[in-house]
Amino acid sequence: MNFQLTEDQMMIKETVSEFAQRRILPNRMIWDEAQTFPREVFSEMGEIGLMGMLVPEEYGGAGLGYFEYKIAIEEISRVCGSVGLSMAAHNSLCVGHILQFGTDEQKKKYLPKLASGEYLGAYSLSEAGSGTDAAAMVAKANDDGDYFTLNGEKMWVTNGTTADLFVLFAKVTDHPDYGKKKHGGVTCFVVEKGFNGFKIGKKEDKLGIRSSDTCTLILDNCKVPKENVLGEVGKGFAIAMNALDNSRIGIAAQGLGIAQGAYEAALKYSKERETFGKPIAAHQSIGNYLADMALRIDAARLQVYKAAWAKQQHYENGAARHTLEASYAKLNAGDTAMWVSEKAVQVLGGYGYTTEFPVERFFRDAKITQIYEGTQEVQRLVIAREIGK
Fold first, then answer.
1. Where do runs of H (alpha helix) occur along the chain?
2. For 385, left (φ over 0), alpha (ψ -120 to 50), or beta?
3. Residue 276, exposed/middle/buried by CB under 10 A (0-12, 13-18, 19+)?
4. Which pLDDT value is given to residue 3?
5. Considering Cα of 311, then 316, then 319, then 320, what sign does the dihedral take?
6. pLDDT digit string (tens) for 97-142?
7. What is the predicted pLDDT for the residue at 243?
């Protein structure tokens, strides 16, 4: 067993880190304070292959693996959790769905534009009354000949105000299971922002991840061509549940990056700040905090990497599904991000509570990693179910 990154993986890590330090770091607090989504940065990320990391070269992507993708998410999130989230939503949830379930025509039409950064992708499953309970969605799709007409309101859509393409779920009312099964009729659609009847709703004012926009979507007799159904009509719920096993690893990598960034800021400060004639890092209480931070991050990283490896083994070699590893990684990395960022604020003391230093932002950004893509409570339910089989 080899825990060392390959030369190619190290090169990816260094390239992404350099980009984040040069292009994101100087602006991250400006974007956060103004709640500005840096759309131009994602176009630049497309130029260096970050917007289509998993997309095969034949569709204009980088053709890399899941492991390399998680490394990139961690490095971006180590500097800015907002950009890390938007990158993950684009790659894992929008691009990933089209790559796995799309027809050849859908792949040829959309993947090159998504991989280049010309298009920004989004994903829309949740509604006001259906978050964890996704099957409770009420958005409807009526069969109108060459089109499905969609009506309803979707919620918590990452990249929503700026995305060009949406992978979106609604219940087809003409499906035989509609009204008979809770998830009956759930269907996945690829929706372009210019489709008639598609509108952007309220933008959320959030505690953290403030420069990654989140909004509602309004479907007001939205016309979606039938060729834009992803997968089969009525099979969308299985597609959505499949996506969670994959996207949870991306969120785990985001949480890991946030934890790493908070830890590095606290470590740097602890070596520079002196009390009682020595750096505070030399005081046992602070040293213990730093030791526990490093310990938890290292353990979380191993779980994230193992989950990425298990996912790749499943899809490439037919190994067992990675549901358990994904929930392990998401649960531990999210809790690690929250714990480490809170302790980072404590290490900096009063300065940690100000916007002059980045740890307060890491603290605000960390909380959401315990909520989306399945709450920590849901992860424990998944883990209990899997180990009980």
1. 7-19, 28-34, 39-47, 66-79, 81-88, 96-101, 104-116, 236-272, 284-317, 323-348, 359-366, 376-387
2. alpha
3. exposed
4. 86
5. positive
6. 999 999 999 999 999 999 999 999 999 999 999 999 999 999 999 9
7. 87
Q: Is 278 helix (H, G, I), strand (E, B) or coil?
A: strand
Q: Are the C-beta atoms of residues 130 and 140 closer than 8 Å to each other?
A: no
Please indicate, yes or no, if residue 2 is contained in any of the structural domains.
no
Assess whether 244 and 381 both reside in one domain.
yes
pLDDT score, position 359: 98
Give me the CATH number covering residue 254.
1.20.140.10
Specify the residue for token string 């409770």: 136
Give the integer Cα–Cα distance in Å for 340 and 366.
Answer: 9
Q: Which residues of the chain have pLDDT under 50?
A: none
pTM, two decimals, is 0.97
**Which residue in 386, 247, 239 sits closest to 323, CA to CA?**
386
- Is the four-CA dihedral 296, 298, 301, 303 of positive or negative sign? negative
Which active-site residues does the annotation give?
373
- Domain assignment of residue 360, yes or no: yes
In the structure, how many helices (H) and strands (E) does the chain have?
Answer: 12, 10
CB under 8 A, 24+ apart: contacts of 268-276: 269/347, 269/348, 269/351, 269/357, 270/347
Domain count of the chain? 3
Looking up tokens 């978050």, which residue turns up? 131
